[in-house]
Design a protein that fits this description.
alpha/beta, 45% helix, 15% strand
């Protein structure tokens, strides 16, 4: 799949799924702007990419702040001349608990990181895509957005909003040759948010409970998600827009 020399921003790529996507894209020849609010983590990812012979740079930005997102997009263009792909991976969740126990502050943060970030990325990346004759958004949503379960109600809603918004944007921006797609990963116990999803440390009992819901019998990995993203960003995926790919081992069937 051809993404060679494409300029790509991956938000929240200082670890977990975002790190996997950034490294996978760089290994396939993309120029990757690694973003995170944790500078040390993000810079380590860049060093790893460069050590492997890839092209990457780091940019610290809070994806809930318009000025930060604007500066991040401008940095990619400054470094490499244009922008081809915007991968909105940064995410956050409140701890698994009854809906009425989630604070207003937690609710606001959940929607800011998971949904407002999509708005800001659209506002600031679309003008660059139009200059470039097109582009691709890949929004990392969640199986929670289509098969919600109790305990993560407000998180589930935020990811459902990402999915619906992505489909609407795909329709609206299609005439500009801008594609918008989603990836819905199932539970990954190795991400930084896994304990929040599980409502506490992911012990063997919790692993077994989650595993029992996945017909293929294993959890998702960052590479599983990165492979789906690679296709959506590639020239081979140039006619794919407005879709959500469940990377879930048939969890949502």
């Amino acid at each position: 799949m051809n993404i060679n020399q494409k300029v790509v921003i991956v938000t929240g790529s200082g670890g977990g799924i975002g790190e996997g996507i950034a490294k996978h894209f760089a290994a396939h020849g993309a120029k990757v702007l690694v973003n995170d609010i944790n500078s040390a983590a993000g810079q380590k990812v860049v060093k790893d990419i460069q050590a492997a012979g890839g092209t990457a740079a780091f940019f610290a930005a809070d994806v809930t702040r318009s000025d930060d997102v604007k500066a991040m997009v401008q940095e990619a263009v400054k470094l490499w001349g244009h922008l081809d792909v915007m991968i909105n991976n940064a995410g956050w969740t409140h701890r698994n608990r009854p809906a009425l126990e989630v604070s207003e502050e937690e609710f606001d943060k959940c929607y800011a990181v998971n949904m407002k970030s999509i708005y800001l990325a659209t506002v600031h990346a679309v003008p660059e895509f139009r200059k470039n004759g097109g582009g691709s958004f890949i929004n990392i949503a969640s199986t929670a957005g289509i098969r919600p379960r109790p305990g993560l109600t407000w998180y589930n809603g935020s990811k459902g909003a990402v999915i619906t918004t992505s489909k609407s944007l795909a329709s609206e921006l299609g005439p500009d040759n801008i594609r918008v797609n989603c990836i819905n990963p199932v539970f990954n116990p190795d991400t930084g948010l896994s304990a929040e999803f599980a409502g506490g440390p992911v012990d063997e009992a919790k692993r077994a409970k989650f595993m029992a819901t996945i017909p293929l019998g294993r959890f998702s990995t960052s590479l599983d998600v990165a492979n789906a993203a690679l296709y959506l960003a590639s020239d081979e995926g140039s006619f794919i827009s407005g879709v959500c790919i469940e990377v879930d081992g048939a969890r949502c069937v």
